[in-house]
Amino acid sequence: MVEDRKFWVLCAVSSVRNRLPLAVIVLGLTSLFTDIGTEMIFPLLPAFILTLGGGAAFLGVVEGVADATSSLLKLGTGLYADRLPRKKPLVVAGYALASLVRPFVALATRPWHVLVVRVSDRVGKGVRSSPRDLLIAAAAPAGEAGRAFGVHQAMDHAGAMIGPLVATLLLAQGWSLRAVFWAAAVPGILATLCVMSVREPAPAGADSAAAPLRQPTSTEQESVGAPPVERLSPRLKSYLWILLLFALGNSSDAFLLLRAHELGVRTALLPLLWTAFHVVKFGSAYYGGRYSDRVPRARLIIAGWVVYAFTYLGFGMARAPLHAWLCFLLYGFYFGLTEPVEKALLKDIAPTAARGKAYGYYNFIIGISAIPASLLTGMLWQRFGASAALSVGAALAASASVLIALWSRRNWTVVSD
Question: What is the sign of the dihedral through the CA atoms of 163, 373, 146 and 201?
Answer without folding.
Answer: negative
